[in-house]
Amino acid sequence: MISSQEARTLIVQTITTLPAQLIPVDKAIGYTLSKDVYAPIQLPSYDQSAMDGYAVCSVQTGTPYQLIGELPAGQSTSTQISSNECMRVFTGGCIPKGTMAVVPQEYTQSNGNQVIVIENDDLKTNIRYSGEHVQKGDLLSRANDKITPALVG
């Protein structure tokens, strides 16, 4: 009988590393990375709303804001909001230039083209800034890491 150390030595001497394979992401779970993976882009790639609500350049409870439009998720705009103006925005969507906060829709009352902030959470902007989560070139995972659903995202 051989010792466990001798067995390990024999195994290491006889095994070979398999060549790297290019596998579609949806089929790669359970495999191991052959090299470090770096972010090809920053995330989010643009300033975006963290919730459904109204983009404003300053939050003032009780002050009416003029609703100047709606910015559906997936669209961008060159519109800049001014004081006492707001624009309807949606979770994950772009925000207009000049936005300092997104007031959650449940903190507002709307009447046609006027929106009034009825509650204010001073500590939250509800904006995910460009590159806030991942910067281009950030190390996402190291060689030899197991590919998991969380890694694939």
Task: Describe this structure in a few short sentences.
This protein is 10% helix and 25% strand. It has helices at 4-14, 149-152, and strands at 37-38, 48-49, 53-56, 64-71, 85-89, 101-104, 108-111, 114-117, 127-128, 139-141.
Helix content: under 10%
Q: How much is the average pLDDT?
A: 92
Radius of gyration: 25 Å
Report the uncertain regions: none
**Fraction of residues in β-strands:** 15-25%
DSSP summary, beta strand count? 10
3D structure, described in words:
With 153 residues, the chain is mostly beta strands. Helices cover 10% and strands 25% of the residues.
Layout: helices, strands, pairs:
Elements: H1 4-14, E1 37-38, E2 48-49, E3 53-56, E4 64-71, E5 85-89, E6 101-104, E7 108-111, E8 114-117, E9 127-128, E10 139-141, H2 149-152
Parallel strand pairs: 4-5
Antiparallel strand pairs: 1-10, 2-9, 3-5, 3-6, 4-8, 7-8
Which keywords apply here?
153 residues, mainly beta, two-stranded antiparallel sheet, 10 strands, 10% helix, elongated
